[in-house]
Amino acid sequence: MDFLHTQLAHLQHQLSFVQTDPIDWKFYVQAFSWGVTLFETYLLFRQYPLYSKTEPPVVLASHFNGDEFQKSQKYGKDKAKFSIVTGLLKQSIDSVMLQYGFYAWSWTAAGCVLARFGYGPEYEILQSLGFAIVLFLASSIPGIPLSAYQTFVLEEKHGFNKTTPGLFVTDLVKGWAIGFTIGLPFLATFLYVFKWAGDRFVPWLMAFLLAFQMSLVVLYPTVIQPLFNKLSPLAEGNLRTRIEALASKLKFPLKHLYEIDGSKRSSHSNAYFFGLPWSKHIVIFDTLIKESKPEEVEAVLAHELGHWYYMHPTKLLCISQLHIFTILALFPAFLHSPYVLLAFDFPKSVAAVPPTMLAFTLFQMILTPLEAVVGIGMNAMSRKFEWEADRFACELQSKLAAPEMKDMGERLGRALVTLHVKNLSTVWVDWLYSAYHHSHPTLTERLKALEAFQAKTEVDSVAKKEL
């Protein structure tokens, strides 16, 4: 532990200029946040012409009829227009808030409200919670009309919306209630650990954040998810038998197998698993069950179990911990820098001893370009994991000595095509747009890879028989 703190102290020495040099951090944040937004807009303009293509890629030509492909193109075009407008609008609002001292005003406003109840500046955590509430409302309220437009205009136009106005409002209220119920105690504890641990907060905060993540793994399916969707045990039948048999052969610790009423809000389809290492739950959207054959849904679950087999969730958790460690390791230099707060219009009285909440909020803004790069790297890692999970499904025949699974790759390919057709997913994708935005390979890439995986599996199977 002492070695860790020694290295962290050395890092802070390298970053000491943050505390001594009056850098114009506001200009830096404005420039880089607009840079990221304009780059994302540029990517959308790269992608947009592809929505004018009249034919699908050759590998998909037999899977789409003309009407389905044109519908997907129109849906993609409308989503791109919406993304361009919302991206620029959100950045404009954030930029105005930043430029005209909204963050400093929010801190002062939170302090004034607390003062009416007899709480002074010494109650920093309480004031930080008030500050967080003001920022949450300021960022959430402008997004409500955009969210309503997306749900009741864009998604409705293309036949996906199943959400009623009443359900939309209910979901909004529930989301806010959950955010306040979980978020405020989390934030209070987060800030308390900072104060309690002093300059040696990094390992303690790492432990706290990991414990919180693990707690959500338990709380989400048992407490949060049921507030929005109904999870019912998957009915007895061919599909349940197939999935339970597959889980048993792989020794997957399946505890519950659910069907979720995703059609309550949307026609989009999905399937996923979650849980602790010794107790996993599989959830299948009712739309997926309705639109795909049992053997195809089984193939989708085979892909998902590939993620478990190769420990992808655990690897992503470790990567996220490394990411969090890097952020926390860099933070102390900014925590003790009055110049950072002064650059964002905070008064000298506040900047002299920077409150942790303010320093961390501004620090996150300063990290904007770094986070964009990290996002690209995470997408690349995620796509690698998707390839591995697809290959796993194709190799089940040999892994389990199960000849009935020899066509698992073909089944998965058909399921993916069905999902893309029913979801009107984009099939023409610009490579740079995909690298930045997509955590999954494109459908064309996956179908080509599945064919290659399937062919290799068959060759390996023949070779084993000859031996």
Notable features of this structure?
transmembrane helix; mainly alpha; zinc; four-stranded mixed sheet; 21 helices; CAAX prenyl protease; metalloprotease
Short summary:
Pfam families: Peptidase_M48 (PF01435), Peptidase_M48_N (PF16491). The protein has 467 residues and is mainly alpha-helical. It has one domain.
Strand count, sense and closure of the main sheet? 4 strands, mixed
Q: How many individual domains? A: 1
Termini separation: 54 Å
Percent strand: under 5%
**Mean pLDDT across all amino acids:** 89
| SSE topology string | HHHHHHHHHEHEEEHHHHHHHHHHH
**Amount of helix:** over 70%
Strand order of the largest sheet: 1-2-4-3
Backbone shape: globular
How many distinct beta strands? Answer: 4
CA-based gyration radius: 25 Å
Q: Any low-confidence stretches, pLDDT <50, length ≥5?
A: none
**Helix/sheet category:** mainly alpha
Work out the helix count: 21
Characterise this structure.
- The chain has 467 residues and is mostly helical.
- The protein has one domain (2-466).
- The chain has 21 helices and four strands.
- The chain has helices at residues 2-14, 17-20, 25-47, 66-99, 102-116, 124-140, 143-157, 165-197, 201-224, 238-250, 286-291, 294-309, 312-335, 338-343, 348-351, 356-366, 368-394, 396-399, 408-422, 431-437, 443-466; strands at residues 231-233, 254-260, 271-276, 279-285.
- A four-stranded mixed beta sheet has the order 1-2-4-3, sandwiched between helices.
- Helix 17 (368-394) packs parallel to helix 21 (443-466).
- It is globular, with a radius of gyration of 25 Å.
- The mean pLDDT is 89.
- It is an enzyme of class 3 (hydrolase).
- Its cofactor is Zn(2+).
- The active site is at residues 304, 390.
